[in-house]
Design goal:
This protein is an alpha/beta fold. It folds into 2 domains: 98 residues, no CATH class; 208 residues, SGNH hydrolase (Rossmann fold). Helix content is 60%, strand content 10%. The chain contains 17 helices and 7 strands. The strands form 2 sheets. It has a 5-stranded parallel beta sheet with strand order 2-1-3-4-5, sandwiched between helices. Strands 6-7 form a two-stranded antiparallel sheet. Helix 7 crosses helix 16. It is elongated. About 1% of the residues have low confidence.
Length: 388
């Protein structure tokens, strides 16, 4: 191959690797934002990447034809060339295929499949960026307002059809009497939820606040928890972050990593995570600050005359674990303020985790659990039960 052609191939490969890597580190979103022109430029770049992969595949096959078949190489050398060409061709073809394979992967570090999932299923998106219908014409509706406020469970992470979320199941039941809004946001926490509620243009008559035990994380971080960069964890984390770079540059390798290799990495992070969750709730000052965030939201609702209900979502892989946290640490706060709450754990006990989860790598509630949540809320909340 001539030097000029080698340079061209080098930059083709560089472009092929750069596109998924920049997407995986959120660089693309920061650059394009909501600019329609830049969004279409990104789509064209994505298509160009696929075309370049096809071009590389043709080059590999062409070189095999010229250097092996046409050159009449001895069988031993020909077999080696055949093996290497086959492996490279399979990899390139797999990369093309997995460039279009979405998979909900939760909130993992390497999440190209998740980003594809968002592109395929993370719709509709309204004016404020929520996965909900447009606000125009609904904000000023004469109907009573029902707002679902929460994190990725309310957003519907892993739920391909947004109509299968618990908020939308309820909406289809009470929509005649209520204007329903979903304010679910991935990786949100109690303090962020209050700020988003204050900023929302409509005051709800009924607010359902979805709570998950990891809402304490931002507070815990201020007390030194969830920092996986210090002491002994430092070298391990640096090594892991270095090792996963290739998996951020390939959709195929990413899929293999998340579904196979990530199980080993996840077990390490999971032990740190669970330990720091426990320590955050045990730390008197950390817990007090977190409960103040909850109380601030409660008091805001009281001042604004908003009827508040709290929905507890358990850890679907360890229901008893989060049930203890909620009953010992959070429920007393709600009882003190006379706030009603709904806990769905009893309805989920007895089911295997794979019956409750989106998939093996996404620990969010699947459609089955979403339906149970909706049913329990409809039974527990009088304002919803009365509306036909």
């Amino acid at each position: 191959m001539k030097l000029k052609n080698k340079i061209v191939v080098f930059f083709e490969v560089l472009f092929i690797l750069a596109i998924p890597y920049l997407w995986s580190i959120n660089y693309i979103e920061k650059i394009i934002g909501s600019n329609i022109v830049l969004i279409w430029c990104w789509r064209l770049a994505y298509i160009l990447r696929v075309l370049l992969l096809f071009h590389l595949l043709l080059l590999v096959l062409k070189r095999f034809y010229i250097n092996v078949i046409k050159a009449n190489l001895p069988d031993k050398k020909a077999n080696k060339k055949l093996l290497s060409t086959t492996l490279i061709s399979i990899f390139i073809f797999a990369e093309i295929v997995f460039s279009f394979v979405p998979q909900s992967q939760g909130n993992g570090q390497v999440d190209l499949g998740q980003r594809l999932w968002q592109a395929y299923f993370g719709k509709p998106i309204n004016e404020l960026g929520y996965r909900d219908n447009e606000l125009k014409g609904r904000i000023n509706s004469n109907k009573k307002k029902l707002i679902f406020l929460g994190d990725s469970f309310t957003y519907g992470s892993g739920i391909e059809n947004y109509q299968d979320r618990y908020s939308d199941i309820i909406k289809n039941r009470v929509g005649v009497s209520f204007e329903v809004f979903n304010l679910g946001k991935c990786q949100s926490d109690t303090r962020d939820e209050l700020e988003r509620l204050k900023a929302f243009q409509a005051k709800p008559d009924v607010l359902i606040l979805q709570y998950f035990h990891n809402d304490i994380i931002p507070v815990g971080m201020r007390y030194g928890y969830f920092d996986y960069r210090e002491s002994k964890k430092n070298s391990q984390t640096k090594l892991l972050n270095t090792l996963i770079i290739p998996f951020k540059s390939s959709f195929f390798l990413n899929f293999l990593f998340v579904n196979v290799g990530n199980k080993l990495v996840s077990s390490l992070y999971s032990s740190w995570y669970k330990n720091d969750i426990n320590e955050s709730f045990k730390n008197k000052y950390c817990l007090e600050e977190h409960t103040r965030d909850i109380e601030d939201l409660i008091h805001y609702c009281q001042i604004k005359e908003i009827k508040l209900y709290v929905l507890f979502i358990p850890d679907l892989t360890d229901i008893e674990y989060t049930q203890t946290i909620y009953s010992d640490k959070i429920v007393p706060v709600l009882k003190k303020e006379n706030i009603a709450f709904v806990y769905i754990a009893d309805c989920l006990k007895g089911y295997a985790a794979d019956k409750l989860l989106v998939n093996a790598v996404d620990m969010h509630a699947n459609e089955f659990v979403q339906k149970i949540i909706a049913e329990q809320l409809l039974l527990a909340i009088p304002e919803l039960r009365e509306k036909k």
